[in-house]
Amino acid sequence: MAELTALESLIEMGFPRGRAEKALALTGNQGIEAAMDWLMEHEDDPDVDEPLATPLGHVLGREPTSPEQGTGSAAGEGKPVLSEEERQEQTKRMLELVAQKQREREEREEREALERERQRRKQGQELSAARQRLQEDEMRRAAEERRREKAEELAARQRVREKIERDKAERAKKYGGSVGSQPSPPTEPGPVPSSPSQEPPTKREYDQCRIQVRLPDGTSLTQTFRAREQLAAVRLYVELHRGEEPGGGQDPVQLLSGFPRRAFSEADMERPLQELGLVPSAVLIVAKKCPS
Question: What is the pTM of this model?
Answer without folding.
Answer: 0.31
